[in-house]
C-alpha cells in the first residue's frame, strides 16, 4: 500500500488533484448535509450546468475559467434561492429552468467555437489533468474560505437547516444564512468541476450525506461521518482510477455508491439486531 501511494504521488498532476479533490470532497460533504435535509440537494446539479455554460464562454473568450465561473455560478445560486422563496416557480422547477438554459448556452457556444475538444470533455466529465498550479492555489484558497465560513457559522446553519421558521422567530437572519449556504455551495461546485466534471459533481454533495444518514441520527454525527466517507471515497476512487485507468470522476462516484450500499446494509442489520 505504501509503495502504491508513493507511486501515486510521484506524478505531479495526481498530487495536485489529490490536494484539491480532498478539500472539495470535504466541503461538499459538509454542505451536502444541510442541502439534503432542506430538500435542496439538486442545486449542485443545477449549478454545475451553469458552471459548464460559464466555462464554455470563458474558453471561447480566452479568459481564465475559474475567474469567470465563480461569480457567474454564485449569481445563479442567489437567483435560484430568490426564485424559490419569492416566486411561483419553486425548488426543482427553478433549478431545471436555469440549469437547462445554462447547459444549452454552453453547448451552443462550444459548437460555434472549439467544438467538443478535450478541454470541454474534461469540464463535462472531469479530468485530473485539468489542474495546473494556478488552479490549485485558487482552489485551495476558495476551499479554505468555504471550510472557515462553515465552521464559523455552524450553529446558524444548523438552525436554518432544522427549523427555519423558529430560527427567524428567535431573531436569526435566515435569509442571510441561506444566501451564505448558497454561496458556499456555488464555490464548491465550481472548484470541484475541474476533477469531477459538470455531470458528476452533484454526487459529492448528495451521496456522503445520504450514506451517513443510514447509520447516524444526530446532526453533528452525520456531519462528521459524511466528511470522513466523502474523503475516503475520493481517495478510493482515485486509487482505482490510477490502477485501472478509469475516469477519475466516475470512479469516485462508484466508490460513493459502494459506501452507500454498505452503510444501508449495516443500518438494516443494526435495526434487525
Number of extended strands: 0
User: Which structural class do the helices and strands define?
Assistant: mainly alpha
User: Which range best describes the helical content: under 10%, 10-25%, 25-40%, 40-55%, 55-70% or over 70%?
Assistant: over 70%
Low-confidence stretches: none
Distance N terminus to C terminus? Answer: 35 Å
**What about the largest sheet?**
none
Bulk shape? globular
> What is the overall number of helices?
13
The pLDDT mean sits at 85
> What value does the Rg take, in angstroms?
18 Å
Beta-strand content bin: under 5%
How are helices and strands ordered from N to C? HHHHHHHHHHHHH
How would you portray this structure in words?
- The protein is mainly alpha-helical and 273 residues long.
- Helix content is 83%, strand content 0%.
- Helix 11 (202-213) packs parallel to helix 13.
- The longest helix has 26 residues, at 12-37.
- The protein is globular.
- The mean pLDDT is 85.
Outline of this structure?
By secondary structure, this protein is mainly α. The chain has helices at 2-9, 12-37, 43-61, 65-86, 91-112, 118-125, 133-152, 154-162, 164-169, 174-196, 202-213, 219-244, 248-272.
What structural keywords apply?
single chain; 273 residues; mainly alpha; 13 helices
Task: Walk me through the topology.
Layout (H helix, E strand, L loop, with lengths): L1 H8 L2 H26 L5 H19 L3 H22 L4 H22 L5 H8 L7 H20 L1 H9 L1 H6 L4 H23 L5 H12 L5 H26 L3 H25 L1
